[in-house]
Amino acid sequence: xxxxxxxxxxxxxxxxxxxxxxxxxxxxxxxxxxxxxxxxxxxxxxxxxxxxxxxxxxxxxxxxxxxxxxxxxxxxxxxxxxxxxxxxxxxxxxxxxxxxxxxxxxxxxxxxxxxxxxxxxxxxxxxxxxxxxxxxxxxxxxxxxxxxxxxxxxxxxxxxxxxxxxxxx
Length: 169
Fold this sequence. Notes:
The chain has nine helices and no strands. It is mainly alpha-helical and 169 residues long. The protein has a single domain, classed as Hypothetical protein af1432 (Orthogonal Bundle). Helix 3 (34-50) crosses helix 9 (132-142) and helix 6 runs antiparallel to helix 7 (100-112). It is globular and about 40 Å long. The termini are far apart.
């Protein structure tokens, strides 16, 4: 059975995902829920195939579904959610008996998901993405729909970082 299937059936993960969704129930900016995780996974899988990287879908999925789980601690304790997601992912994958080499790759992807770039330049150069770190960072960024966001005027992202509709035409 794929690790992502095990993760999604794990009671702790399901409870934590519910907690995260409750904490973000009134969030006006982009959310971090199952839909976000699915979108990150979908985009990362597309880039993986387009760039012939050969990264296992299960590795991509694990990274996509764990990369923002540290937001629970960010909301509750004020810690950096990327660092907390790294710890969360490590503990969760240890409990799921994920092999060390897979854990290391996923944890690296989690750690690098925070990077933001000039969106237009990043989109134009997406064929240069070379590893899980790159594609998760790209997918996390491009899962956003800034062009259709009601909170855009209050967003901390610069105009250059925002995802605009014309990138997809």
